Amino acid sequence: MSHPLLFTFLFIFLSSLNIPHTFAANSISMNHSLSGNRTIISQGGNFVLGFFQPGNKSNHNHYIGIWFKKVSQLTPVWVANREKPISDPTSSELRISDDGNLVLLNQFKKQVWSTNLTSIASNSTTAVILDSGNLVLRDDSDPSKVFWQSCDHPTDTLLPGCKFGMNKVTGERQQLTSWKSSDDPAPGIFSYGIDPRGSSQYFMVWNGTRQYWSSGYWNGHLFAAIPEMKSGSINYYEYISDATENYFTYSPVDDKIIARHVMDISGQAKDLAWMEGAQKWMLYYCQPKQQCDVYNLCGPFGSCSQGSFPFCSCVKGFSKASPSNCDLEDYSQGCARNTPLQCPHSSSDGDKDKFFMMPGMKLPINNHSVAVASSKDCELAWLKNCSCTGYSYSNGCTVWYGDLLNLQQQPDGSAGETLYLRLAASELPNSKSRKRRFVGVGVGVVVGVFLFAIAFILISGHQRRRIIATTKAMENNLVLFKYGDLQRITKNFSEKLGGGGFGSVFKGLLPDSTVIAAKKLEGLHQGEKQFRTEVSTIGKIQHVNLVRLRGFCSEGTKRLLAYDYMPNGSLDTKLFRSNSMVLDWKARYQIALGTARGLAYLHEKCRECIIHCDIKPENILLDASFVPKLADFGLAKLVGRDFSRVLTTMRGTRGYLAPEWIYGLPITSKADVYSYGMMLLEIISGRRNAEQSEEGKKAFFPVLAVNKVTEGDVLSLLDRKLNGDADLEELDRVCKVACWCIQDNEFHRPSMGQVVQILECAIEVNMPPVPRSLHVLAENSESLVFHSHLN
């Protein structure tokens, strides 16, 4: 085959594969337009400009947008025609028009988007995608002459280096507006921007009308309502105010970080960074912190509950108005009635509308107050008013008309108020059916007592055989215990081994003399099916440095986990109790290494990264050979899959918490690294990091440790009970690792895999810098309670 024919064949073949073509240039000019699957890439290869399809590819909607080149997950950061999608990108075109504007023409050559500038006709006008992600329209003969840039017209995302504020001369201001849904970039109902009156505050607004969050004023260092900006962030923040403009901008602390600030469809502003290893975006910060603080997130008659996932559900008598939209995280249409109200057409007592009691609610807004004598009078008065959809009586009668917006179920039902919701009578049981049910229950009780007596005689002889069979099954499988069995095994939970934020642990003895530790869980609210699924997942996770889960119980609110019993107890008893045996240096080093291996397995070897969230000596158990076993490693996962819920629900221990957690920022596995570093210092010294010194003064040991490591005097940090008996090279290595683990910025901390390599002497460790936050903690050490649980 001749060369010309070969090239022709290859061209046709490659075209048939529909592989996106990329221009060598990073710009669009008069003679160089963009169509079909062609793209242009910024000079450094950071960003791409071209046609894309968001979400579900079956909708046939295409948009011109900018997305990350180095992120495997398509993530648009700017969309030109977000309100006017095109259906055929092949015959559509992004080009420079005769008047110098950048325009998008659809398949009918009709203009659907333009930079919309006053005529700037120039043969050298060019659109260039920069490595910052900014698309600029400029004079190619004089690149400093910029006519238009995408940074001035953001959609839902603010990229590092872009200004986010207001031009005081023209009054023009930038605003971030959420997507309508996860596959529709059209403007949604949540927006975010600077105070149009010219102050330094930033507001979030629902539907262009109701403000639901404010940053507070800039005080020269941070925004008043966001104290966590001061530290513990992946970004540097800056606010500028001069004669011509007010604006906010940010940049990552490490130029290798791929970051974005987005107004999410959840109504929250979020800072995210791309985690290459996990192949996903990791949330580092969001406002408002609580999802249910977003106004009317769930739409009419939708209720938001912070303790559940998804957060939105329909109140009784209502169903999702648009299930398909909800699947795309768009809950704005709310819920629709299952049964129309009878009023004003009710004909008898049987089919009149009724009010359904909803306790523990945060009441909706737009209420009306009415003067009545009692709750009963309030109900009777508004049953007659067909336009009343709900009422509440608390020191007065309050009523609502039309749609109920911003309904919230409080996390603790007793913390809210009671709302009475108007429903059709058929949605609620009437008194006659309740009487029939009461009679039926009474008869059932009598019969049940009789049957129970017979069953008790038959079952009691069988119980011992069943428990023994369960014990044998435990050799290889996760066992589902009955609550009554665990009651008997633990002698009605009489021998308590310890307790913590998640519940208490009790010693139990199986019929074959196997000793177990049964943990009664508290505060877990997920459904039965989800709980069993999560426990089954944890049960498959086995490692020599993780306490093995043997079985579990899940009967209503009774949730227990059965673990192997560890005869040498927890690490804290060996380190801090004066009457306990002294662990020699060899044992301490092996405990540090074993714990690191267990954490590295959870973070890096499991199908999903499991963040422990409560690393401390109390959660390191020791078997008969003093091999460390990490306990409670599955409890963070059991709290819930959604990361923000892990943040808001989890209870850690102050003194081991990473700075980003203390400041209310979402966490990653590097929070465990910080806690591990703090614990490592306690293993070295044999004392709590904050305790009375021999001189009676309260000292913060990590500050001393970092200074001594810098000076090269690590031996002075060793537990005095060891009388200097330690391998100095190992001691130096452990001290340096601990100081690296407690760095302020999580990107400066090593991963647990790297910690294992250092402790195994596979890689060297350099001298660590001094973490700034330690001085803050030291200055405030007298007001800190380092070992009390946070709610």
From TrEMBL:
The UniProt record lists the keyword Electron transport: no
Cell membrane found in the keyword field: yes
Gene3D superfamilies xrefs: Bulb-type lectin domain, Phosphorylase Kinase, domain 1, Transferase(Phosphotransferase) domain 1
Residues annotated as transmembrane: 438-459
Membrane topology: Single-pass type I membrane protein
Record-level GO cellular component terms: plasma membrane
Protein's gene: LOC103696884
This protein's name: Receptor-like serine/threonine-protein kinase
Subcellular location(s) of the protein: Cell membrane
Record GO terms (molecular function): ATP binding; carbohydrate binding; protein serine/threonine kinase activity
UniProt xrefs under SMART domains: B_lectin, PAN_AP, S_TKc
Span of domain Protein kinase: 491-770
Alphabetic keyword roster: ATP-binding, Cell membrane, Disulfide bond, EGF-like domain, Glycoprotein, Kinase, Lectin, Membrane, Nucleotide-binding, Phosphoprotein, Receptor, Serine/threonine-protein kinase, Signal, Transferase, Transmembrane, Transmembrane helix
